[in-house]
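Q: Hi! First time doing this. I have a protein sequence and I read that you can turn it into a structure. Is that right? Here it is:
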Amino acid sequence: MLLILLLPNFVCSEVVTLTRDNWFQHIAGTHDWYVMFSQSGCPHCKRLEPLWVALEQQLAADGASVRVGQVNVSADNGIALTFGVRASGVPTGGQT
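A: Yes, that's right. Below is the predicted 3D structure, encoded as structure tokens:
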């Protein structure tokens, strides 16, 4: 299962930064993923940031096999377009 969520660009050591260079290496593994497609400067998304950091921390604390990853829409637009994500469309979410 891959859940795609569009959220702000943020740095958290537990959240995996997904790029075109490492996407398949991470996503093709045995974990389910919450993937955040983010764009810096989105005030609506920025307010959601603490929730997703807390989610990653709680999942890690619970030993869950779900990982949280982040894609910067501006830097890796190809990944975003694969899922129909436009930079102007954040925040939004969907499951695939």
